[in-house]
Amino acid sequence: MRRSTLLWTVLGISVAIGLFVVKHAVQDLEDRLHALNIEIISDRDAAQVLQAEWSFLNEPARLEALSREYLGLVTISASQTITLPELIELIAANEANARVAATNASSNTPTVENKVVNPDWLERTLITLNKNQ
Amino acid sequence: MNEPKTKIVEKIRIEGDRKTAIETGRNRLIIAGAIFSAAFLLIGIRVIKVSIFNHDAGPRYTRSVAKDETYTGRADIVDRNGVLLATSLNTQSLYAHPRLVLDPEQAAIKLKHALPGINVEVIEKLLRSKRGFVYLKRRLTPNQHYAVNRLGIPALYFQRETRRIYPLGPLAAHVLGHTDPDNKGLAGIERFFDKDLRTRQSALSLAIDARVQHVLEQEISQAMRSFGAIGGAGLIMNVNTAEVLAMASLPNFDPNRANAVPRLSHFNKTSHGVYEMGSTFKIFTTAMALELGNITLRDGYDATKPIRIHRYTIRDFHAKKRWLSVPEIFIYSSNIGAVKMAQKVGKESHKRFLGQLGMMKSVQIELFETGAPIPPKIWRDINHMTISYGHGIAVSPLHLVAGVSAIINGGIYRTPTIIKRRPDDPAKGKRIVSNQTSLKMRHLMRLVVEKGTGGKAAVPGYLVGGKTGTAEKVSDRGYKKKALISSFVAAFPMNRPQFVVLTMLDEAKGNKATQGHATGGWVAAPAAGAVIRRIAPILALQPIDDEVSAARRLALKSEINSSGGRGIAAD
């Protein structure tokens, strides 16, 4: 009789303590969730403001003025574009010319005009162009 | 067993008076114990209740923010490449519960410091009112919000409110429209998709391309300045998907401050305005004659004498006074020839053909601002004749571009759209003319730019074709001689048309450079050419002209030789 009473008392008290601990842990987590939510919302607001600002700074008229002022870029004309096959053909012709010129000129030092296109540069360009196609 | 008990009983036997005193004490003890245990029980119950059933502590304020929940307000609007055109930013609005304000006068004076520009008397009056809720100032800036918060006036509160922002300002203002202070869409896309924008969680993608839109607006306003025009309109459409890449109506306005400009500039000339378009209608007349009138490009008509009907005379503006072949009629824009071609087809077929091209009802685009065409009430012979060269029927520029797209894209009419189409969702259309007719029309339109009235729209490398149009504006009594609607409808590249470009100027005046002319070929065609020159590289179109190709090779060759191939020509 006494033993069981003791047991129930201990059990009751430990359940009560457990309940209290869990309760407080939940409350802490809830507070943290609340704080995180506030942070998410304010970050989201900030991101939206930044996006609007990005769009504002990318206004076509502004970009046009800036690129004209600092980059000296103008509208591309048809004569400034070339297709990849045309480019390869052109490079090949250019290389052949250079070879002929090199054999013709007996001197060992190639002149600036005869300089062939840097093969590394061409390699890289073609790889990127192929990727984009 | 009885003996000890009696012994004890004997031991604690107490006499009368004392016995009652002890019994009273015992009773009191029981009562006190009962009260205490009841109190402890109550506290215990309360503790359990508070711990487990926490409903008294107010509603739970936390809820997790869903992962896909990206917008707190109205959804964004973006262009076809994802450039932000309209967004909602969160701002704080200041409101008060006037009944809880302790000292309205002091509060108003304090607020004056935090929010310069407010009227102290008005604020004080608001704070003294008997209402439960008043807005003091809506949409504070972050600094104002901070300043008001620092004052610490009780009974003042903030409410989150979103404000619609158009970061690109006036760009595509007529397409986007604008909203009222409560974020209700009042015009354009904002109005048409009002409900959708309130609820949707992702951005709405338009078919508009911000870069192309910018070029179109800039070139048309440039042309307006050069020729002193009072208005302008422009439209660029993909002929195969009927997507509108750019739609301009000038003068335009900044939707961020929509109320700062006269209502008149809110009017969308491109989709809402209806005009007699003039000779650009000859595209439809010629296509119709080729399709239904059993004529070929080798046929022709006598255009020596003007046509007289009732009290009207139909004459040619660029009169050649001789027999003209069908291509000549088209490239010299002969009214007489157009009338004769239409007559070959007949009145009823003419009417039906224009109906199929959508010229008899509003365009079903995603805007409420669409103009209903004004066709003649009764089609008499005179209407049949004038409509062949674009007079006597008023349609919107959008009607015209949709019709021209159908004629040159292989003959399929598709309803124009401002919303980006998914690549896997091809637009359904209905056939208007055969592929052969479409091919012939491409040739004719190319000829107009190569040899005819549209020469100023030529762009090397992009095979521009088109048709000029000049119409006298309708006034209360007949036509105004000096007020013209000058337009040019272009398409490129003509070997496989991709885009139609329309430029239109309202009441353009000729200047020295145009020898006083204000017709479509002189004022609108150069603008169309300038637009195409700039947008073709943006739209990644490859130049195709052989002549240009040869020149290009030469240019590049010399360049590779001189600079190692890395130079970018900047002429």
Description of the structure:
The complex is a heterodimer of chains A (133) and B (571). Helices cover 77% and strands 0% of the residues of chain A. Chain A has 133 residues and is mainly alpha-helical. Chain B has 2 domains: 77-206, Penicillin-binding protein 2a (Domain 2), CATH 3.90.1310.10; 213-550, Beta-lactamase. Chain B is built from 19 helices and 18 strands. In chain B, strand 16 (465-474) and strand 17 (479-492) form a beta hairpin. In chain B, helix 3 crosses helix 4 and helix 10 (282-292) packs across helix 16 (435-451). The radius of gyration of chain B is 39 Å and the shape is elongated. Residues 559-571 of chain B have low confidence and may be disordered. Chains A and B meet through helix 1, helix 2 and helix 3 of A and helix 2, strand 2, helix 9, helix 18 and helix 19 of B.
Helix and strand topology:
The complex is a heterodimer of chains A (133) and B (571).
Chain A: H1 2-57, H2 60-71, H3 84-104, H4 119-132
Chain B: H1 2-12, H2 16-52, E1 77-78, E2 84-96, H3 104-114, H4 120-128, E3 134-140, H5 142-151, E4 156-165, H6 173-176, H7 188-192, H8 194-199, E5 204-205, H9 210-227, E6 231-238, E7 244-250, E8 275-276, H10 282-292, E9 300-302, E10 307-309, E11 312-314, E12 323-325, H11 326-331, H12 335-345, H13 347-356, H14 381-387, E13 394-395, H15 397-408, E14 412-413, E15 430-431, H16 435-451, E16 465-474, E17 479-492, E18 499-506, H17 520-523, H18 525-538, H19 546-563
Parallel strand pairs in B: 1-5
Antiparallel strand pairs in B: 1-2, 2-3, 2-4, 6-7, 6-18, 8-13, 9-12, 10-11, 14-15, 16-17, 17-18
Helix pairs in contact in B: 3-4, 9-18, 10-12, 10-13, 10-16, 12-14
